[in-house]
Design goal:
By secondary structure, the chain is of the alpha/beta class. It folds into two domains: 186 residues, Rossmann fold; 57 residues, no CATH class. It is 41% helix and 16% strand. The chain has eleven helices and eight strands. It is globular.
């Protein structure tokens, strides 16, 4: 069943909860929401040990959106979901959702413990010696109504996915339609990630116990990104999950969460 909470700026945020036990809030990455991405599966898998809350980030699914955007609005959205749990919960973030959760923790959003999986602080690739203005290029595509082009640009040019990925997505019309529907929120993830470089000074402000995870099959730049986060967060625990890619399996991440959280 869908419930709603209200963020500080009045934006309505949709969420669900499943399971029993201490509260755990999941934070999705780019283009993901309750019905598309890892969180529903993860929530069901973890529900025997936790009361799991998972939500649609603003502009996605059943959640609203309010201009102007700033990453701080999403810290407030997460805080609103946390308030809805009625306790100080554990938090797990995936990909850019991990970056969002880390930066929210640094800003003082209350959490019992925090786990992150592959926050993509992978840097910005220069082209012929020129560093592109990725946010501007992304916005140009969105302004033209080219949501599909924005999805491809984000996947390949911004986060370094293989060039065939957009074509593969287009061969799955239902999936590609879902991606295009949330493409306008890619500019939000781009702002959360800023220059795709770990904000060391910000992460150093985190005071909650933090588990920083990555997969053993990650590319070198992602492996470095995870290590940079682990080094920046005081007292963090750094784990590499054998055999895992950026699409981590529930059965691989769950034991690490149980050991760290409980």
């Amino acid at each position: 069943m869908t419930d709603f909470t209200t963020s500080h700026d009045g934006t309505r945020i949709a969420y669900e909860k499943v399971g029993t036990g201490p509260a755990l809030v999941l934070v999705d990455g780019a283009m993901c929401y309750r019905d598309f991405g890892p969180c529903r599966s993860a929530a069901e898998y973890l529900s025997k040990d936790f009361t799991v809350y998972f939500y649609d980030r603003r502009g996605r699914g059943e959640s609203g959106d309010t201009a102007p955007y700033a990453p701080e609005r999403e810290y407030e959205d997460l805080a609103a979901v946390i308030d809805a749990t009625g306790e100080t919960p554990y938090v797990l973030g995936y990909s850019s959702g991990a970056a969002l959760a880390l930066q929210a923790a640094a800003s003082g959003v209350a959490m019992k413990k925090l786990a992150s999986y592959e926050a993509p602080y992978v840097g910005i690739n220069s082209k012929k010696g020129v560093t592109p203005d990725y946010l501007d290029e992304l916005q140009k595509r969105l302004d033209k109504g080219d949501n599909g082009g924005a999805v491809g640009y984000f996947m390949v040019d911004m986060v370094g996915g293989p060039a065939f990925l957009p074509l593969m997505m287009r061969l799955m019309p239902k999936v590609f339609a879902q991606l295009k529907a949330v493409a306008p929120t890619l500019r939000y993830d781009a702002q959360v990630m800023n220059t795709f470089t770990a904000p060391v000074a910000t992460l150093a402000k985190i005071t909650v116990p933090t588990l920083v995870m990555g997969g053993s099959k990650a590319k070198p730049n992602m492996t470095k990104a995870v290590a940079d986060v682990a080094a920046a967060v005081p007292g963090s625990v750094h784990k590499t999950l054998p055999g895992q890619t950026h699409q981590v399996k529930d059965e691989a991440i769950a034991p690490e969460l149980l050991a760290f959280f409980r």
